[in-house]
Design goal:
The complex is a heterodimer of chains A (about 300) and B (about 450). With about 300 residues, chain A is of the alpha/beta class. Chain A has nine helices and 14 strands. Chain A starts with a strand and ends with a helix. The longest helix of chain B has about 40 residues, at about 220-260. Chain B is built from 18 helices and six strands. The chains are: A alpha/beta (about 300), B alpha/beta (about 450).
Chain lengths: ~300, ~450
């Protein structure tokens, strides 16, 4: 869907994007992650053709990105807002028309969405009469109204209560199921794991991690396991061979458990071979790092 | 292109539909008509108030008979003593007075003027002026000078100001009328450039502080949004002017036909002129009568269609030029208070032209300063319009307008470069240095 190639964007004394290349696969939910100031917004603005890159190019659906793609992209910026004094209905029509919809079509779509989200009664209200959460909902509708192939959401859940956040999340998933590619920019890592198929992590203007969530998590597996066991009665004390694993945590209240990390040249089997004569193993979990951990690890170790 | 039209439409309709727009559109002409009617009725009323009945108690037995009745003053020779006369009129309403002329009036020049109410100043001065003439005649006689000879001495200079037109003809020209029109135009242009320019700025600040800007410019180019706003608001301005012109002419027509009989008005205006002038010599009366026609000929000398067309052209040009600058300022700041530091410098040329128009430009409309100012795009919308009523060659108007168009293309280009960056900048205190940096950014 989107092929970002060697994008460089320089502001006076600060490089916002430094040779950034990202591949956003069609029909996936793509997480664009990174700490504040990493360059996410700069990149999103370039995809939206709000600003132009100094060098590099973006390929949208096989074509070089141009103004004909504007109507195929829906963008929900992090800092959002609407005209305060304009009626919601008129405003929606205006925004849809700017995306290239006819007035009639715009009206139909807005009706459809307002009914779906049960906000039909807002048509003749002014934005200033709505709560912040309500405004967010309206703005979400404005973003997806023209059935864009690519939807860019910058922190779409900020400002929503959990109930409405769920409603919006379901809508996002449904849109994705219907074929829309979604770029989801956020700091909220738990939602990344729930939603995203692929991610790119930006830090200090560069991509420091890219790939499918599954692969990345796989790559981050470092043979850490939590083992719950009972000591066999005939064994006095469990003997641990420290060359086999490094103990990270241990609990000995009632049932025993320990978290261990196994060095690269050894495997879980080696450890079990060593442990089984001494203990009764009850459960073993592999501890897979969360996206949150990976994010923090990557960003703090990236100097 | 279609998107620019959508933006223009929104900017235009959202303003024209506002109550405040309708209010100003209708109230401003009503205000002027109100003044027009008000001035008429006040003049009429003060004229009626100044009609005075004067009982003359004349102890000289000579002066009283020389007083002449006029439109305003009616003298009645009183047969009563002063005190009885006072008793008689003390309860009367209206402008009733007693003029007491003591026996030694020729020596002391003393009179007493008693009124039933507060003495009317114009009545008093009219009486004084008549008595003055009587004294003058008396003193001429004392000195053995023939008053009729004195009156025949005429020192008044009559100037026929004529303007040589390109065809070599001499054309009547009255600079007072031109000055009046020039000043009115200068005020109108100055105020409207400010008014609508500031609206552009406010609109942009609103979009920026609402944070809707990023949504909009993901659909349209910043330049389209800026131009859409400028053109939309400009059309609001033109609509307002057209409505004002139509409404004013309409209301004046209605007012003149129903409320006021025009010829009566003109007559009364003439009557209110000081009567004392008659004594100076016969000339003044003829002059009085011709003032109305003089104004008419002077108005004819000013080319009204040319003036109206120039007004709209220079308003549009000046508006485009300044609103682009206002747009750049609006994009660079987060709120209106912050905008003040920038609006000051950009509007200084306008203010300068405005101030100069009242002195230098009007007094010397074809002097070097006036000509230069009317060519420089930043000042020409005011300076050229001030000059036009005095007669400006068409090539100068055309050249000035072309320069103005060039000027606004340039400012729009500069403004657009600042605008596209500025609208996305928050919380950064903009300085001129910063603006120059933005201007240089690519893309």
């Amino acid at each position: 869907m989107l092929e970002i190639r060697n994008i460089v964007k320089q502001y006076a004394h600060h490089k916002a994007l430094d040779d950034v290349s990202i591949h956003v696969p069609t029909g996936k939910i793509f997480g664009l992650l990174g700490p504040n100031g990493a360059g996410k917004t700069s990149l999103i603005r370039i995809i939206n053709q709000i600003t132009a890159p100094d060098s590099g190019e973006i390929i949208f659906d096989g074509q070089r990105l141009n103004s004909s793609h504007i109507g195929k992209i829906g963008y929900l910026p992090e800092e959002r807002g609407l005209y305060k004094k304009m009626l919601i209905g008129d405003q929606m029509i205006y925004l849809a028309q700017l995306k290239g919809l006819s007035k009639q079509l715009a009206k139909e779509k807005i009706k459809f969405w307002f009914e779906k989200l049960k906000i039909e009664s807002w048509w003749d209200k002014k934005v200033e009469d709505l709560s912040k959460g309500m405004q967010q909902k309206v703005q979400f509708v404005a973003t997806v109204l023209h059935e864009p192939q690519l939807i860019i959401l910058d922190e779409p859940f900020s400002g929503f209560d959990p109930v409405n956040a769920q409603v919006i999340q379901d809508e996002i998933l449904e849109l994705n199921k219907k074929g829309a590619t979604i770029i989801y920019s956020t700091h909220r890592m738990e939602s990344v794991e729930a939603l995203c198929d692929n991610i790119a992590l930006l830090n200090k203007s560069k991509v420091i991690l890219e790939g499918s969530v599954k692969e990345i998590k796989n790559n981050y597996r470092n043979q850490t396991y939590k083992i719950e066991y009972h000591k066999k009665p005939e064994v006095d004390a469990v003997f641990l061979d420290s060359s086999l694993y490094q103990k990270l945590e241990e609990h000995k209240n009632g049932s025993n458990s320990m978290t261990i990390q196994i060095p690269e040249d050894k495997s879980l089997n080696d450890v079990l071979f060593h442990l089984i004569p001494q203990v009764e193993i009850q459960q073993i979990f592999e501890i897979i790092p969360s996206m949150h951990d990976i994010f923090i690890d990557k960003v703090t170790n990236n100097i | 292109m279609n998107k620019i039209l959508l933006i223009i439409q929104r900017e235009y309709l959202s303003r024209v539909k506002k109550k405040s727009f309708l209010l100003t559109t209708f109230l401003v002409p009503l205000f002027f008509i109100g003044m027009y009617v008000g001035v008429f009725f006040l003049t009429k009323k003060s004229f009626e108030d100044s009609k005075a009945l004067i009982y003359v108690v004349d102890n000289t037995k000579e002066v009283g008979s020389q007083l002449k009745n006029t439109e305003k003053l009616t003298f009645t020779e009183s047969t009563n003593e002063l005190n009885t006369q006072i008793q008689e009129i003390k309860d009367l309403d209206g402008n009733t007075n007693i003029l007491f002329i003591p026996e030694d009036f020729y020596k002391t020049h003393q009179i007493e003027f008693l009124s039933s109410g507060k003495p009317n100043i114009s009545t008093k001065s009219d009486v004084e002026s008549q008595l003055g003439d009587i004294l003058l005649n008396y003193q001429y006689k004392e000195l053995n000078i023939d008053p009729s000879k004195i009156k025949s001495i005429d020192t008044k200079v009559h100037t026929a100001a004529k303007e040589i037109t390109s065809t070599g003809e001499a054309k009547d020209s009255d600079t007072r009328i031109a000055m009046g029109i020039a000043m009115a135009l200068s005020v109108l242009i100055y105020l409207s450039l400010f008014l609508y320019g500031a609206q552009v700025m406010r609109g942009i600040i609103e979009e920026k502080s609402n944070r809707i800007i990023e949504v909009i410019i993901s659909s349209v180019k910043p330049f389209q949004l800026m131009m859409g706003k400028i053109i939309g608001i400009g059309l609001v301005g033109i609509t307002q002017f057209l409505l004002w012109i139509i409404l004013s002419f309409g209301l004046i027509a209605i007012a003149s036909n129903t409320l006021i009989d025009k010829s009566e008005f003109q007559q009364e205006m003439m009557k209110t002129r000081p009567q004392g002038m008659e004594l100076e010599g016969g000339q003044s009366e003829i002059q009085n009568g011709s003032i109305i026609s003089e104004i008419n000929t002077a108005m004819d000398a000013v080319n009204i269609p040319e003036l109206l067309i120039s007004f709209f052209l220079f308003f549009i040009g000046g508006y485009m030029l300044y609103s682009a600058l206002f747009a750049a300022v609006g994009s660079a700041v987060d709120n209106e208070t912050e905008a003040n530091q920038f609006t000051m410098p950009i509007t200084t040329p306008l203010l300068l032209a405005y101030i100069l128009s009242f002195g230098v430009l009007i007094n010397n409309p074809h002097g070097p300063i006036a000509v230069w100012l009317s060519f420089i795009p930043l000042t020409s919308p005011i300076a050229m319009l001030v000059r036009i009523p005095f007669g400006v060659p068409t090539w100068q108007i055309a050249l000035s307008f072309i320069l103005l168009v060039g000027g606004f293309i340039f400012t729009t280009w500069v403004a657009a470069r600042i605008y596209r960056i500025g609208i996305l900048m928050y919380g950064k205190k903009a300085s001129f240095k910063e603006l120059i940096k933005w201007f240089r950014y690519n893309g």
